[in-house]
Amino acid sequence: MRAQFVLSEIGVGLRRNLTMTFAVIVSVALSLALFGGSLLLSDQVGKMKGYWYDKINVSIYLCNKSNAESDPNCAKGAVTEDQKKSILTDLQKMPVVDKVTYESQDQAYKHYKEQFGNSPLAASITPDQMQESYRIKLKNPEQYQVIASAFNGRDGVQSVQDQKSILDNLFTLLGYLNLAARGVMAVMLTVAMLLIVNTVRVSAFSRRRETGIMRLVGASGFYIQAPFIMEAAVAGLIGGILASSFLVVVQYFVIDHGVSLSTKLPLINFVGWDAVITKIPLILAVSFLIPALAGLLALRKYLKV
Questions:
Q1: Strand ranges (DSSP E) for 34-188?
Q2: 204 with 299: CB under 8 angstroms?
């Protein structure tokens, strides 16, 4: 097979069906950009889980004078010094506990002012209204229930809260967004494949005279089909290059520079260039192989060349 002939036929086919080729490229680019984005989002969720789950605490909030009258859990009054010492001693004896940190009312008030100082409600809050608490770092964040069952309902304890439940809701939402992106990607890729099938059929039909002559002179089926298959593959590959470029642009201008989310949102540990670079070969391979396969199936099923 002469490579020059195949390349010339690819160029002719792409130019002859320019509008449909453009539609194929755009569809493949959008679908594979969503595909790459969904893979990166999965990496991002995994990285965030590893980062945040290592930092989450279980908080035991102690009763104070303000909630002693309004909260049924504090019906016996504010926590006493003996109760605080007893709670701390029991926590330190528990094998699931890695570290215990005490936060006083003044410290809680300072942290509240740092986070919500601009809130209109902040001006009416006083230190004696804040709750003392113990912040517990667990050896295994999944063992929250051990702490909850041991201290919920205990004298002087207002509530036991697990930060993991808040993070789980966030990661569940991100998971749903990831599934939605993959669903849209599947629809867009299906549309792209249908466009490729139609493009190949139109291209082959417009050159049926040439292919007929090639059959008469003894050309093999693969030799006749190759230019059409490569047309689809090249169009898909261009779309894959555009999709890869989009991911690179987003990483550079949105995450690292320009908008610079990595600087503005330091609490989020964003995926780096290594994650982006490892996705690009997969995107390019998919963009080349799937359109080529769609072109091959279109020729065999519909045109029987």
A1: 58-62, 97-103, 133-138, 157-162
A2: yes
Quickly count: other Cβ atoms within 10 Å of residue 236's Cβ: 30
Q: Does residue 258 come out as left (phi exceeding 0), alpha (psi in the -120 to 50 range) or beta?
A: left
pLDDT in tens, 263-289: 777 667 788 888 899 999 999 998 898
Q: Please give the angle made by the CA atoms of 207, 15 and 191, to the nearest 5 degrees.
A: 90
Structure tokens at 55: 């930092």
The per-residue pLDDT for range 67-121, each reduced to its tens digit, is 777 788 888 888 888 889 998 898 888 888 888 888 888 888 887 777 666 666 6
Integer Cα distance of 129 and 127 in angstroms? 5
On whether the CB atoms of residues 147 and 60 are closer than 8 A, the answer is: yes
The owner of tokens 């809701």 is 169
Nearest-CA neighbor of 105 among 70, 63, 72, 69?
63
Residue 12 has pLDDT above 50, yes or no: yes
- CB-CB contact of 97 with 136 (8 Å): yes
CA torsion angle for 296, 299, 304, 305 (degrees, to 10)?
-90
- Tell me if residue 305 falls in helix, strand or coil: coil
Strand, helix or coil for residue 130: coil
List alpha helices for 64-143, DSSP H.
Answer: 81-93, 105-116
